[in-house]
Amino acid sequence: MSDETARPTRGSKRDTDDGDRSVGDDTARSTGDRPLAVDAEGLALTYADGTEAVEDVTLAVPEGQCFGFLGANGAGKTTTIKVLATLLEPTAGRVRVVGRDVTAERAEVRASIGYMAQETSVDEELTARENLAFACDAYGVPADGRADRIATLLDLVDLADVADTPAGSFSGGMKKRLDAATALVHDPELVFLDEPTTGLDPTARERLWTYFRRINDRGTTVFLTTQYLEEADRLCDRIAVVRDGRIVADDSPERLKRRVGGETVALEIGGGPDAVESAAAVLSESAALDSAGADAPAIDTTDDAVRVTAREAGDLGPDLLVALRDAGFAVTGFAVAEPTLDDVFFAIADDSVGDPPDRSGDDGRETGRSDEEGHESTVPSEVDA
Ligand SMILES: Nc1ncnc2c1ncn2[C@@H]1O[C@H](COP(=O)(O)OP(=O)(O)OP(=O)(O)O)[C@@H](O)[C@H]1O
C-alpha cells in the first residue's frame, strides 16, 4: 500500500494482546478519543409493502473498528447496511455515517464509504484492471494517480498477476476480492461488506479474511455482515446480533462468549463407558465442585470422557483430576474448551442471552433508545446508487 493511502491503525483486533478490549470503551458515544464512523439511533425501515424489516437499531461504531453485524436470514442485516450506505432512506431514526446525516448529506456520505454488496458487481467481460478503472470513473477518482491506485489495490487483493485477464475466468473467491477492491478505489474511511464470503470455500474465505484484515489494519473502518460466526470471531473487534430488526446483543466476541456461560473441562477416562459413568458419579459428589459456589457446574458424559461445564471450569480442572485419581480412575486426557460464538448465537436464538444491551450501565455506554423523539416516518424507496 502506498504511503499516501496508508492510514494509521486505530485499534483493530490484532492490536490487542488479549483480544478483549473493554467494550464499554469502544461503544461509548462519549469516548471522545475516536469519532464514530457509524452513529445510529432508533434506525427503522419499513418497506413499501409494510414489512418492518428493521424496527429499532442503535449502533455506535468508532472509527477504525472492525465491526460484525450478525443475524439469521431475514433478520434485517442487509436492510440496515443499505440504510447506512444511503441506498435506502430510514423510515425513522437518526442515522449518521462518517459524521454526516445519511439523508440530508447523502453525497458526502457516499464519497467517504465503500460498499460491497452480497452479489458481486464485477463486470465479467472486463479485466480486473478495467473493472477497477470503471469503479474509479464511478467514484470520480481523479485521473492523476489513478493507475498507481489501481496497481496498489490489485496488489492488496493479490490480483496483480491476473490484472489484465477478463474477470469472467476468475474463481468465485477472486471475483469477491476484485469486488472488495472496487469498493476501495476512492480510499473510503469506512467500507461496508455485506456477507462478503457467502458461498465461498474455506480456503477462499480464509484469503478474503486476510484482505479484510489488511484493509482494517490500514485504518479503514470495516462494517461486516455475516452469517459465519467464525468469520465474525476471527475478524471483528465487536459484534452486534440483530434479530427481527432489533439488536439483541452488542459486545466483544470474548464477552459475548462469556455471557453464555462457562468453559467446559473434558476429562478422558480409560476403561470404557461404565468407568466414565462411575467417574461422573464421583465428580458429582466431589468437594471440588462445591467450590464452584452459586454457579452450579453441569456434568455430562461422552463415551470416553466426563465433561464439566462451569463459569471458571478451567480453574477446577486440577482438583477434578486429583479427585478422580484418588478414586482410582485412569484419567488419560484433559482439555478445557471455551464457548464458541455458535453457542452465543444459539443461546440468543433461545432468548437466553437475548436482552438488548443496557447502555445506561456502569460501563459508560449510553442508553439504547426507542424512537421517542417523534422522528418523521416515511415509506422509503430504494435510492439510486
Ligand atoms: N425490497 C423488500 N421489500 C419488502 N420486504 C423486504 C425487501 N427486502 C427485504 N425484505 C424483508 O425484510 C426482512 C429483512 O430482510 P434483510 O434482507 O434485511 O435481512 P438479512 O438479515 O440481510 O437476511 P439475509 O441474510 O437473508 O440477506 C425480511 O423479512 C425480508 O424478507
Structure report:
The radius of gyration is 24 Å and the shape is elongated. It has helices at 23-27, 77-84, 106-112, 128-139, 146-156, 172-182, 202-217, 229-235, 253-259, 273-284, 287-290, 313-326, 341-349, and strands at residues 36-46, 52-62, 66-70, 92-97, 100-101, 113-116, 190-194, 221-226, 238-243, 246-251, 263-269, 298-301, 305-310, 331-337. It contains 13 helices and 14 strands. The protein has two domains: 13-258 and 345-349, Rossmann fold, CATH 3.40.50.300; 262-337, ACT domain (Alpha-Beta Plaits), CATH 3.30.70. It is of the alpha/beta class. The model is unreliable at 1-31 and 352-385 (pLDDT under 50). The two termini are 28 Å apart. The strands form three sheets. It has a six-stranded mixed sheet with strand order 6-7-8-3-9-10, sandwiched between helices. A four-stranded antiparallel sheet has the order 2-1-4-5, covered by helices on one side. Bound molecules: adenosine-5'-triphosphate (ATP). Adenosine-5'-triphosphate binds at residues 47, 49, 51, 53, 71, 73-79. This is ATP-binding cassette domain-containing protein. InterPro entries: AAA+_ATPase, ABC_transporter-like_ATP-bd, DrrA, DrrA1/2-like_C, P-loop_NTPase.
Fold topology:
Elements: H1 23-27, E1 36-46, E2 52-62, E3 66-70, H2 77-84, E4 92-97, E5 100-101, H3 106-112, E6 113-116, H4 128-139, H5 146-156, H6 172-182, E7 190-194, H7 202-217, E8 221-226, H8 229-235, E9 238-243, E10 246-251, H9 253-259, E11 263-269, H10 273-284, H11 287-290, E12 298-301, E13 305-310, H12 313-326, E14 331-337, H13 341-349
Parallel strand pairs: 3-8, 3-9, 6-7, 7-8
Antiparallel strand pairs: 1-2, 1-4, 4-5, 9-10, 11-13, 11-14, 12-13
Helix pairs in contact: 4-5, 6-7
Residues 47, 49, 51, 53, 71, 73-79 line the site of adenosine-5'-triphosphate.
